[in-house]
Design a protein that fits this description.
Distance between the termini of chain A: 48 Å
Structural class of chain A: alpha/beta
Oligomer: homotetramer
Strand order of the largest sheet of chain A: 3-2-1-4-5-6
Helix content of chain A: 40-55%
Largest interface: C-D, 42 and 42 residues
Strand content of chain A: 15-25%
């Protein structure tokens, strides 16, 4: 095993201990010699970095922890660069969640106009990181967690030469909830899944290779825990007619009306809730006796986050050729989508990257929404990378949520204005 | 010139004199010996048929006019069968326009849930006509005007062996309005157009073969008559950013919100307005001295209707190999749509049918909406032809307007119930 | 009608009077004010140019004739540039025909290794012309007749911004022979044709729009004049099984063995025969009393050459929107071929160019050969335009004739060496 | 582990002990309770079956061995059906190898007219087996080794509902020879391979995930053992220009001339050599003290045959989700080939079958030959399954070897006549 340097961009995130814990649990597979933690927020970097340093002391081998405000330092010499930064931090997220509501549109971190604004803020930054990686660590891998993960990964994939895999803990979370519901071991279950990030469907479920979709779908659809398992209490008749299981974020498309009503009725947006949780977590992290991932972190969300991330890095590093659901270029896997779109599908992951399995033709009941959102994402990547306002307007208008190009025009103006200095368009 | 028999299904329509007038004006190209007028409404058939008989007397050659309640009689021996029937007549249209409004959805004859209901009523009937044509006039041509024209044509194309071309007067209307605005002769202008029926875009404008798109688009976008020319006052910034001109029905997608508000504010739905107009027209038609298309018919809409229809029949009959914008199977013309979808594009029309020009890749700003609506149409055709309720639910939920599968479920139930006995699903 | 300047590259060709005659016959459609004749051979330019000058005097309006050795002069200010030059002239053609025979391979001007050598000589020259057109007459049209017409046109299409249409008299010749055989007027017959240049098949025959393929194919296949009509006595059983009619150059693929034997048995290659004919024709051209296209020119081949060329220019100039079989980018017309390959199909020709009709899926019995030759052509264009020897070897080895990559290697070396200084590869 | 019943069709093959040996070595993974050996040759069945019975006694657990002349008995209740039968046995193979030579065409068991004849004999038989499997063991897997493996597998895939995977030992053999040449462990090497059965190319070589293609290709191309490694001394310049490594059977395409000369110069065809070897082996097998796979079997060819077969069965049975190079439906993996063609590529094999990785666009230097042979195979499958003589002629003429459709016609007649009663066409 070679000794690894792991660069973490946005390391002040309260998730970082979860990530480090993932490496701690996989010391037999990955030999880390150095974590380079980068953030632009010195205070959070100190607090979170302090905890990481204490966890690092519990590794079997000596692990160096470096804290830096300089992105290039985190990239230079890294074997893997993990991106989990958030441009504009939680206040920007709060705006992403609140502004669309004023226009009677879903306000959400990744889906819809909120995700659009986040993408427009993030793409220029991820491309700076990509440029640095091309220069300082051209053989390294970028493991992207920054949302909207599919769009951000697509920007890197289309506009740089960096090796990149996008990740999301949603497929693995759904997988585990389903296994739990069916009362089977997670590793015995195979979830045949496809789509885009935060727009995924489950096509089949296999138990030790046996296709159990018919009975399993039926059980899940009729379960009192449907809401928990899939992330939403989707209309049963619709699920039966569709013949596939949608994952949670599809609530914003299949139940736009109800989701919007709920978002509007909440006293605080999610970002505001998270701000409070983060405050508590950061307090906790300052406890000098704490040297492991605290239980409380689970409240923050992101279950199996480290599993998704570190398992993929181990698959690459050890050339495991094992299946992971990741965000990769389509290359022809899903028929009817451009070959360079980033899709979220099972892929064989090894040292040379992630090779997607062929998905082929998707059911007609899925095609329309999938292609519509994909076109929006392609346009958003283009607008973000090229900084063109006209493209940004077409991108936003191409989102299925938009019910008026007039409204979209005003919304775009407000998003740009509220996101200064992060969104610069010509 | 061979002598032609023209079957007209839904001949009680007040449009029929317009159609007959089209033949009257083209006697040098098409030699009609017999019109077989079929309708299920004896009263309207008598009134409209009476006028047709009087117009027929003004033809240079003797033309026989037959009125019948029997569809098979209109099909048997026909060279061209023109379909312009309306299942459930105007009261059904009124329901199509009103029911969706109760769910805060566009209520429109062809676009959205209203068009969906109309399709579900119409597909079984058009397939009965197709069956009769297969049996009694297998070499004849079905010229379909019945709305939603693309979906209805697709049903015939996919589920029968009948020669079919779908038509709509919208492209020719837009073409003529643009020529008028630009101050050029209609025949000197070429409108490079593509899309689905009632979902079309203008890609380029050529004047005597010269590409004048840049200046012409600019002029149209900034014209005070934009509303008249394209059928809606689309957002200028959006049109500029898009780089194509949308046609009128796209208002329901690009301005869903505003269109819905307008529809809800109207005291009467369009069907109700039309009922009154039709009453007046039918009164007029009863004037025994009237033997030509009355001026008043223009109020009813349908400008250039006969031009679109009879010109295409003449192109077929005389093997003209000339370009018409028609509804035909894609066969690969538009990249990214199934090969058997019905699309609306320029095609070379001659005796062996309509051969579409290659459109190729469509601009990314169009792709999402085009593919989304196309998937909805494919599903609606399937649901209508196969009579499956689950497919109907998935089809309706696949329409971009639908904001809740729960609401869609209830809406579908109401549409089915309100459309008895026309919609029969298992 | 605007006044036109026609540039002719390779105007010393004995075909030039035929071309000028085409303009003479179409004075009502095309108003030529100037022919600029360019050739590198002063003697031929003087002789042929002299005859052209005398024919020019017979035009209704005054027509200027300019003779020049300078290609740029022929391009500058031209509305149409017609290319019919031959790099290395007939001696090079003789080598193209003879060298492959030494390797037991078809030696032919356009098909196989001979055509490959011709392409490799011609591509650098046509690209020089294209560069000049981009600079001096960016709105003009290049009408290419230089063989191998498909490959040469593809080079211009892929490696320049010039408006180009490739032409060949083979489809129109076959069309006319078939009409003659069937005893019908040529203009009443529609030949549904597709393929690559010199690799075309007839899918259907329509008489005044009626599909007469079944009986017409049968008549042609069984005709004693099969050889004359299609250009070869193809195996009848094979033609029946195939269900399409091949055009003449397919003899080299469907009857490689027999064609090779015949070529080897001929005392002179075609180039040598043509050299003799040309000598006679040039003598004739010097007759100062001759002021029209001489009858004898027909021996030279190239029937309907001017019809194909001038009719297409008239369709462009007059924005006729009429169907011609031309060489244009695929853009999706033929499924299974790259979108930027040049194909030979019916296209609607007008001022903005040639828009191909959709061909769609080709019969499986054609697919293999069509795709194989197309890949060879794509590679040859790349090798010729980029001047890469390795690509040239792969291109030549990709030709279906090649039965040994070892032999191909030696053959390539000989072709390069025999074609100095025309073929320069790295 | 469930107890397995393995049906072997064509069990009289001298390869059977090799297959049984594969199961013997993998007792920890596959628990066989019964081998059902079926052959139509009682003598060979007795001899080979006798040895199998003796080997079976060396298994840790009791294994039943059943010998039968009845195919349905071997299929009924089987968990895996392995097909390795040979219609017409070695004398038919000898004809396949000899008849084409009379026409100056490659005479080979799987490639060219010989393989075509074998396919035409075999398809009707494999479809009988498939019909029996549909009836008696619808959940079982057909592991096909019968050549031409791709075509035979495609027939089952297109014309039945049977679960089928086609196998060939060629990829694994090449893989192992390359590992040996590079001096690396076979399991550390990943061979990125694609194509059709007996028409495969190596795109990349990865050592523990590192791309070593550049240096490894160079080493192999320049190795004195090139002939041994790839199966032929391909032209070095060509290999370098191509940028991929061809596998052995490509000698018949890249070196048709040389291969034909060699085949014609051999005193005996391979079938005749094998007949003699088989005689010796069968003698050896009758030794009642022999209870293991004899060393001598290696002479017969088929190295790693059991590895390829039994490893795949183990991957299915144990739902291993591991990569194997197998013959599976394209489904979109290789761009430019029909989705239902059988291709030979790495696929993730588990209980639900083999899911191919996306290959995407193939290099242009490969496309032509790959598509050409694929079209021939598609047509051969159609001809064999539908029994149509016209299709058979088009299929044979679509093979790149054929240089005359006249000759092909005569060759087809002779192949049909020589293969009575096995080939029945209308």
């Amino acid at each position: 095993m070679r000794d690894l340097t792991i660069g973490v961009i946005g390391a002040g995130s309260t998730y970082s201990p979860e990530l480090i814990d993932g490496f701690l649990k996989r010391q037999d597979q990955l030999s880390v010699k150095r974590f380079v933690l980068m953030d632009i927020d010195q205070t959070k970097l100190d607090i979170v970095g302090g905890l990481v340093e204490r966890i690092a002391l519990t590794f079997d081998k000596k692990v160096e922890v470096i804290k830096t405000l300089n992105m290039e330092e985190a990239v230079d010499g890294a074997d893997y660069v993990v991106t989990q930064f958030r441009v504009g931090r939680l206040p920007a997220r709060a705006r992403d969640e609140k502004i669309p509501l004023k226009y009677d549109l879903i306000g959400q971190e990744t889906t819809g106009p909120g995700g659009f604004a986040k993408a427009m803020r993030t793409i220029p930054e991820i491309l700076k990181i990509a440029r640095a990686m091309e220069k300082y660590s051209p053989k390294s891998w970028l493991i992207n967690f920054t949302n909207p993960s599919g769009i951000v990964t697509e920007a890197v994939s289309k506009y740089s030469d960096v090796n990149v895999i996008g990740l999301c803990n949603q497929p693995i979370t759904t997988h585990n909830y389903i296994a739990e519901e069916l009362g089977v071991a997670s590793e015995d279950l195979y979830m045949d899944y496809f789509g885009l990030n935060h727009l995924g469907w489950i096509k089949r479920l296999l138990l030790n290779g046996e296709d159990i979709s018919a009975e399993a779908f039926d059980k899940i659809i009729n379960s009192p825990r449907l809401d928990h398992i899939l992330g939403y209490h989707f209309t049963k008749d619709f699920l039966k007619a569709l013949g596939l299981l949608p994952t949670g974020y599809l609530q914003y498309y299949y139940h736009t009306e109800e989701s919007l009503a709920k978002l509007k009725s909440q006293p605080q947006c999610r970002a505001e809730v998270v701000m409070k949780i983060e405050e508590d977590i950061l307090k906790l992290y300052q406890d000098p006796s704490l040297n492991k991932k605290p239980k409380m972190l689970e409240k923050r969300g992101g279950a199996w986050y480290s599993d998704a991330a570190v398992a993929v890095m181990s698959a690459i590093e050890n050339d495991k050729q094992e299946l992971h659901i990741v965000n990769v270029p389509n290359t022809g896997a899903i028929e009817g989508l451009p070959k360079d779109s980033i899709i979220e599908v099972p892929a064989v992951v090894g040292k040379s990257g992630a090779a997607p399995l062929v998905v082929g033709e998707v059911p007609l009941g899925i095609t329309g929404l999938l292609q519509h959102v994909n076109a929006y994402e392609n346009l958003t990547v283009k607008a973000g990378a090229e900084g063109c306002k006209a493209t940004a307007l077409v991108a936003l208008c191409s989102h299925p949520f938009i019910k008026s190009t007039d409204v979209a025009k005003r919304l775009l103006d407000e998003l740009i204005s509220a996101n200064q200095p992060y969104i610069q368009l010509r």
